[in-house]
Amino acid sequence: MRKYHLTGLLAASLLAAPAQAGDTAFTQDSAATWSVRTIRMAHVVDLANPRQLTKNDFKMACDGLTGEQMKHEYGKEPRWALSAQLTICSAFDGWAGKFQGSKSPCKTLEKGLKDLDHATADAAPPEVVAAAQAMRATGEHILLASKEANACKV
After folding, report:
1. Is pLDDT at 43 greater than 50 in this prediction?
2. Are 154 and 99 spatial neighbours (Cβ–Cβ below 8 Å)?
3. How far apart are CA 34 and CA 31, in angstroms?
4. Contacts for 130 with CB less than 8 Å, ≥ 6 apart
5. CA-CA 20 to 30 A from 17: which of 52, 57, 65, 97?
6. Against a cut of 0.85, is the pTM above it?
7. What pLDDT shows up at residue 15?
């Protein structure tokens, strides 16, 4: 009986762990790191000087993201923030023709942009909100251009 009781307690504590991790707030340094990376991703397109995008435009924006998240961000920010970057980078990698990039980058980008809806003034630091808004503007521009050019499947 004791064995089942301990197993039940362990299972209950592990089930609560993911919910707690998802509620993690940004730390000051993780907010800065996330914001700088997201701005870098947003600068794939210069909205003041729009031009035709190429594979090379997407290639560098996400290099080193996984290592950066593991070192500076994982466990120090909400799960939506990590997910947004990874999902958007999967779309970018698809357009860049990288290994394991999304084969449906428009849908993937839309999903990543939806994660950015969590970046509100009451839930995130100001630099995170500003970076999310910049990424949203870039993402919407890329989506529109991709749909017009029939480039939503790679």
Report:
1. yes
2. no
3. 5
4. 35
5. 65
6. no
7. 40
Which of 74, 94, 79 has the alpha carbon at shortest distance from 151?
Answer: 94
SS3 59: helix
| pLDDT tens-place string over residues 115-126 | 999 999 998 999
What is the C-alpha separation between 125 and 140, in angstroms, rounded?
A: 23
Upper half-sphere CA count for residue 118 (Cβ side, 13 Å): 18
What six digits make up the tokens of 36?
């700088």
Residue 47 backbone dihedrals phi, psi, to 5 degrees: -65, -20
Q: How confident is the model at residue 18 (pLDDT cuts 50, 70, 90)?
A: very low
DSSP H helical segments within 23-104, as ranges? Answer: 28-42, 55-59, 65-68, 79-96
- What's the one-letter identity of residue 103? K
28: tokens are: 């000051």
Longest alpha-carbon distance in the chain: 70
Which residue has tokens 């996984």? 66
For residue 106, what are its two tokens? 């428009």
φ, ψ of residue 43 to 5 degrees: the values are -80, 10
